[in-house]
Amino acid sequence: MSARVTLEMWKTFIAIAEEGSAMKAAQALNKSQSAVCHSIKKMESLLGNSLFIVEGRKSILTDLGHSLLPRAQSLQSSALQIETLASKYQGHLMTEINIAVDVLLEFDFIHEVLERFNVVFPKVSIRVFETSLSGAGQLLSTGAVSLAIASRLPKETIMEPLVEVELRCVCSPDFPLADEEQIFQPELKRHRQVVIRDSGNQNIDSGWLGSHQRLTVSSLVMALTAIEKGQGFGWLPQHMVEKKIEQGTLVPVDLLKGATRMVRLQLGMSPNLAHIGEVNTLFDLFTSLKSMAHQPSFNTEQQR
Fold first, then answer.
1. Do 175 and 243 have their domain in common?
2. Closest by alpha carbon to 293, among 38, 168, 111?
3. For the range 48-57, what are the long-range contacts, defined as Cβ-Cβ under 8 Å and sequence gap of 24 or more?
4. 130: three-class secondary structure by DSSP
5. According to the model, what pLDDT value does residue 6 have?
6. Last residue of a domain, one of 82, 104, 136
7. Is residue 212 domain-shared with residue 243, that is, in the same domain?
8. Each residue of 163-174: pLDDT tens digit?
9. For residues 163 and 160, what is the distance between their CA atoms, to the nearest angstrom?
């Protein structure tokens, strides 16, 4: 029987479950309440079981409804991914590929990969989303991007290790920590820490130590600027701070332990797109050129 249930019915079922009533679901779906009620009653008839119990104005999921909801949401997500993929095609070619890239990755490396991809597929546009923490994984799981580079990606993702980024604890020469020696990490809590906001919805704390004060920013450039101006200390990528330490505009915090951290970035591709030539080519370029991410020639600061 379930084979006769349409995607539109599943969409209606999900809307009622998430909104809590047929009336609110109708508003969310931009349909009449009678159409929504008719759809869910037909679905229940096909399944031979009730999906909701109506109590007043609320629609409460039955045990069967609770069991089916996560599967229905997964089905809807897959359908949306297919529609997104189909919309990017023109003839036999994709017209655009969306990728999510963690802010810790050097831009010059990304630029080199995209330049080489453009030689092979000059008519395919690339849209790059800068993300932090859970942001890239979230975009990949919803089908908003085809490829993602981050330290955390969904389990079902096709993944390859890409690069390890070294982070150093730094501050400005005028910041109080600059004059302290042999510091234990708990002592950092007395000072303001600059952290990068999670661009996803998981609210991961990016290594916040529980300082009494913190400054949360949305980009790596903002974090660097804030630390340079003495607004706090923080961990920044080695490739970003190396030249500035040499010039004296930043100084390493003299921690007894934990002065550096390693973040392992992975490259991920949606399994649904593994057969697409353009996506595979971009994936292969990132993996084949990943050694360049470690080379000094790809350090933006050294090129200035």
1. yes
2. 111
3. 48/1, 51/13, 52/16, 52/17, 57/21, 57/23
4. strand
5. 87
6. 82
7. yes
8. 999 999 999 999
9. 10
Q: How far apart are CA 186 and CA 64, in angstroms?
A: 50
Q: Which two tokens stand for residue 280?
A: 């595979």
Average pLDDT over residues 251-258: 92
HSE, side-chain direction, 13 A CA sphere, residue 63: 0
Q: Which of these three, 53, 82, 111, is where a domain ends?
A: 82
pLDDT in tens, 108-131: 999 999 999 999 899 899 999 999
DSSP conformational letter for 6: -
CB 209, CB 227: distance < 8 Å: no
- Given a contact cutoff of 8 angstroms between Cβ atoms, the answer to whether 267 and 158 are in contact is no
Whether 110 is covered by a domain: the verdict is yes
Task: Give me 261's structure tokens.
Answer: 């951290």
pLDDT the model gives residue 85: 60
| Burial of 166: CB neighbours in 10 Å, binned 0-12, 13-18, 19+ | middle
Give the DSSP letter of residue 70: H
| C-alpha separations of 236 from 170, 192, 226, 239, 251 in Å | 7, 15, 12, 9, 12
What share of the chain in percent tops pLDDT 90?
62
β strands within the chain, DSSP E: 52-55, 58-61, 89-90, 93-94, 96-102, 125-131, 147-150, 158-171, 193-196, 214-217, 234-237, 251-252, 260-269
Alpha helices (H) along 175-265: 220-228, 238-247
CA 177 – CA 175 distance, rounded (Å): 6
Please give the distance of CA 113 from its chain centroid, rounded to a whole number.
Answer: 20
> What kind and span of H or E run contains 78?
helix 63-87
Domain of residue 32: give its range.
Answer: 2-82
pTM above 0.85, yes or no: no
- SS3 label, residue 212: coil
Beta carbons within 8 Å of 86's beta carbon, 6+ residues apart:
none
